[in-house]
Amino acid sequence: MFPVRDYDLGATLESGQAFRWNPVDGGWNGVIHDRWVHLRADEFSITAEAAQPVSDWNWLTHYLQIQLNLAAVVTSFPSDEPIRAAVSACRGLRLLRQDPWECLASFILSSTKQIVQIRQIVSVLCERFGEPLPAAPQYAPAFGFPSPARLARASEAELRACKMGFRAPYLLETARSVTEGFIDLERLRELPVEDARHELVKLPGVGRKIADCVLLFAYGFQSAFPVDVWVIKALQKLYFPRRRASAKRLRHFSETHFGPNAGYAQQYLFHYMRTKHGKL
DNA sequence: CTCCAGGCGCCTT
DNA sequence: AAGGCGCATGGA
Questions:
Q1: pTM (two decimals)
Q2: Neighbours of A89 (CB within 10 A)
Q3: Distance (Å, whole) CA A136 – CA A37
Q4: Which residue's CA is nearest to the C1' of nucleotide B4?
Q5: CA of A58 to C1' of C12 (A)
Q6: Confidence grade of residue A280 (pLDDT, cut at 50, 70, 90)
Q7: Å between A54 CA and B8 C1'?
Q8: pLDDT of residue A247
């Protein structure tokens, strides 16, 4: 059990940054670095149940970013009305610190897909290509996220059979690039964010948006600001309600307005737009 | 039925 | 530099 304040576990796990958390029994089942875990939360703490005895929970607390000072992050936001409304409506929403390969592969599969569909594709991919993992017996079987080497050995047809459509060759080529050492995902941690982004967008199927998702959700570069259709809607509606702003204008605004934790602000705007503000 | 979804790559201007 | 289009698949 981990004491936490101001942590909305459900919003965090289901806000479209990770795709493998399933709500069960008032909590969530998921897999972190090949370890099955059941999480539940109350007002003051998060409780974890693993399949096997755990002596060091660092993998979990790091993933959940339990030690992060959220108040300090929120204080760094600009004090304008839209971001205040988003923060107020999504109190306790956090950013996870995910595995780079799983995050990269998942977001390659995300383009022009709804979150529910991304979850479905990733689920089938893990069942077919991931390693079976020990899980608590009363729950569904668990699988690890397939390694780059395993997916590199798959055929494009096998991947297409997971319903990923035209994204299959992108995932396959990227898995091969990682396996063959064309890109070193661990080394990106040590690079400046611009250099890490430059490396990521070399991969097929990885443009600016998906690269920024990986930089933000896996590597913790909190200045990375993924601009997708929802964020464009949010920026347009909340910050430029009168005139239509070009994509370039919105991008420039996103890079200059939100400060050092812009990526965190982005997640609030994204979640606010999707859940609370969506029908406007 | 049509429209569009946490885009990207490639082709025109 | 900026904009248009096709790409699979399946909900709404």
A1: 0.97
A2: 14
A3: 8
A4: A112
A5: 42
A6: very low
A7: 42
A8: 81
Q: Which residues of A are catalytic?
A: 209
Gap between the Cα atoms of A30 and A10, Å rounded: 12
Answer positive or negative: Cα dihedral of A12, A61, A33, A175.
positive
What is the band of A246 on the pLDDT scale with cuts at 50, 70, 90? Answer: confident
Q: How far apart are CA A219 and CA A16, in angstroms?
A: 16
CB atoms < 10 A from the CB of A30, how many? 18
Give A51-82 pLDDT, tens digit per residue.
999 999 999 999 999 999 999 999 999 999 99
Distances (CA, A) of A251 to A85, A175, A229: 21, 29, 12
Pick out the nucleotide with least CA–C1' distance to A121.
C9
Amino acid (1-letter code) at residue A238? L
- Rounded to 5 degrees, what are φ and ψ at A235? -65, -45
Question: Is it the case that residue A279 has pLDDT exceeding 70?
Answer: no
AA letter at A117: Q
The answer to whether some atom of strand B lies closer than 7 Å to the beta carbon of A278 is no
Q: Tell me if A125 sits within 8 A of A162, measured CB to CB.
A: yes
pLDDT given at position A278: 54
Residue type at A194 in one-letter notation? E
Beta bridge pairs of residue A31 = A36
User: With a 7 Å cutoff on the CB, does A226 touch strand B?
Assistant: yes
Specify whether the CB–CB gap between A272 and A237 falls below 8 A. no
In sequence order, the β-bridge partners of residue A32 are A35
Q: Which of A134, A204, A144 shows the shortest CA–CA distance to A174?
A: A204
Q: What is the SS3 assignment for A153-221?
A: CCCHHHHHHHHHHHHHHHHHHHHHHHHCCCCCCCHHHHCCHHHHHHHHCCCCCCCHHHHHHHHHHCCCC
Whole-number distance in Å between A62 CA and C9 C1' = 35
